[in-house]
Fold these 2 entries.
Entry 1:
Amino acid sequence: MEAVPSRARAYVVCVALGALACLLPVLAPVTVPPLVPVPVTHASWWAVCLLAAVYTGCKQLARRSFAGPFYPVLLAAAFLLPPSVAALVPLPGALLAAAGRRPEALRRIWRAAQLALAVWVAAGVHGELGGPAAVADPDLPYALVPAGAAVVAFCGVLTALDGGVRVLAAASPARPGRRGLFARSLAPTAVHGLAGLMMAVLWRSPYGPVAALLVLLPMCVSWWAYAQYHRERAAHQATIRALVQAVDIKDGYTRGHSERVGQASMMIARELGMDDERVEVLRFAGILHDVGKLGVPTRLLRKDGPLTPEERRVIELHPEYGHEMVRGISFLGEARSAILHHHERLDGSGYPYGLRGGQIPECARVVAVADAFDAMTSTRSYRRARPVGTAVRELERCAGTQFDPRMVTALVRALDRHGWHPAVTAEDGTPPPPPGNGAPRVPAKHRAPRAPAGSAGGREEAHG
């Protein structure tokens, strides 16, 4: 069973008690006198049962066929019903859905309480702004105002509660990536809210609930397409992970290097203002830049002693090997040219083709800087990592001859903004032991550099 910290458990219990308090006006007839009486008619109970059944069915379908949350039914309930009644709708679906991880009961209770609170708040905001009357008329232009406010409240409650439990479960402050969760969640939730408003308007119209449920058909189609996109993306990630793991197994002395080069490439791309799709491609390029080492004989990568000129030429073929390996993977896009040209240098002294300046693809110039930076700041078997400041000064010194100054400047700005927190190269965080004769083994990729002495990264950048 996965351990859940006691503070996180206490937080879940508090949220569950809060959700129960929201339901008290409905449960009051069989418990205690209600503080705020809620009129619950036969029609309301019928609507609760139907919407709850539809939401439960959507949750079960999501587990088998689709992906991601599906909120139109919950938001339709917030637009149609009083707050305490609407909060009942998500309970069966949340409590019956598979939790995925243990402890299952705690996770189900958490999800049910979180959704009940979010629907309760959304219905309350919608009612305070006169939304039910606008839906019943219907006054569609005006109905968008309370519906929009309800969607913002719904999304805000979900992200706030989710952020709280994540922080308590991880025992750490909120990460920067989580701070933007509300902004990223608001757009898809707004689309679901619009579908929920259409359901509510049709529900109150002469066409009735059957017409309202038809709104879900195009939503389900779009949901399915969205799920297919994520499945395809997951397959891409699995392909890349398999290639990187194969490289790491073959040359364990640089384990983790590929992921860090991908991270640094992404930082540079974002600083340059590239769009999200291209940033992702640059991340792929950084992760796969050394995949061509799979085509290099293992004895050369692990050879003790200096390389012969012939052996060095074989190792220098790894960018071309890598390009051939990934040439048929269409989703990599321009990452393929980055893999081929990441060892080219602005002054034409690089390989495999000795390209100069603007002849080198932009993506390759990004990866070249990221590769050199990580090589200098990573601990290797024969030397400790250089400080980030030292590596940056070396990159700046070689900018204009070896590296594109624009890429170097972008990396420096990104480091100033976000810092650099790389993972250790070796699996256990310690340098690998020396070979039998006691002399530290220097991987072949780091010996006999082609670059002139003093170039950024030194021997680290010879073939890496």
Entry 2:
Amino acid sequence: MMTNFRNSVLSLITETSANLPSDVRRAIAAAIEREDPDSRAGLSMSAISLNIDMAVDRVAPVCQDTGMPTFFIHAPKGVDQLFMKREIEEAIAEASRTGKLRPNAVDAITGKNSGNNLGCHVPVIHFEPWEKEDIEVRLILKGGGCENKNIQYSLPMEVPGLGRAARDIDGVRKCILHSVWQAQGQGCSPGFIGVGVGGDRTSGYELAKKQLFRRVDDTNPDHDLQGLEESIMASANTFGIGPMGFGGKTTLLGCKIGKSHRVPASFFVSVAYNCWAYRRLGIIVDPADGSVKEWQFRDENEITRMAKGEGMPLTGKEVVLKAPLTEEEVRSLRVGDVVLVSGEMHTGRDAFHHYIMHHDLPEGVDTRGGVLYHCGPVILKNEDGSYAVNAAGPTTSIREEPYQADVIKKLGLRAIIGKGGMGPKTLAGLQEHGAVYLNAIGGAAQYYAACIKKVTGVDLLEEMGVPEAMWHFEVEGFPAIVTMDAHGNSLHSEIENDSKRALEAAG
């Protein structure tokens, strides 16, 4: 009986959430060296490197969005898969209770959070037989921000910016380049992509996600696909999207392509985009007692400490903001300014934006001149009833585009903090109402959690669950970059337009 299997899986979940693999660390370290340390890209990578170290030290999530836990398991004949499934579910529930995973499983229709990452078809577990004697368990934690940038193409088609893509390797190339471009900073670039060529719509995406279990530094055994991977890496890194979509030299850190047979009527190219917080590990398990025999994606020459300094270096030119903010303060800001926010900050994500369009704020909450943070934190409740923030990086803001301008007006907000930027409706709202969009560093959940000095309250917790509730924080020295100002300027639009020209040149 595999009495140790549950603990082995719990260790896998904990390590995957908190400790990036060796090959990913090396890829990120190389990207740091390529960027100008004084540029927006360099500042971002500096914060990312410190965040990676902090997550290990705290044994806490690298990024607060631990996604939908997805397991790929190879098992020999005779292993009890039902037992393994039950033990995995118990391990998932325990990891959720202790803050190693954020409770992400919500009912598809009602949005009700189960609170423990268990639900219909959650977690995702793929079992495959093999002839080896041991059990292989691999786990990927892929956050919603990058999952939303997954994309699938059906050839032949017209690819925006690149023209006609036929059912050949050049058509595949055009699809992959477009997939990188469309992610911009919303997928927390620099990123990694897995690509599945062929199959049907379902198996194509599964094949793409499986490519993310290849090592960043491996070589594709298929000569044509190897050449395509190298071509994509060279072209994508001319786009100038850079870390967080701020501009820079590194947009893509890895490209892995696999293929499968298809039916004559269909030719799908499926792309799984993964952010820089590339969390996937594996273990080899003894089928006799369930103990870990070997870890995968861990090397002897691993870079154990990533940060060379103390994170985002301060120059003295930062603008210090203390909430609540005045319109005069906000209108003095310009795209490119680095700000340090202190004072009261409120969180609000998808469910909150929908809610507040139809309801008033909870009693006693005043957001006039306030700062709204697009964040779904990992929060633990202490024995005395107070709350501790375990992870609190920004979520992708573009999902709130249909609501944001109206919410700014209704609540009297002066600053929105998120990642990836927002669209023209929000930009117009910022200009009209005297507000600003501040881009935090995506995935830097520990870096920003350290800026939160106190949880002062929470509203809508029972109705929405931990990630979607309206949390109230007292923050100090919270760093972000102005990327959309109150004068109609948007760094995101500028980078998108410039990278579109580079995409067209790559065609």
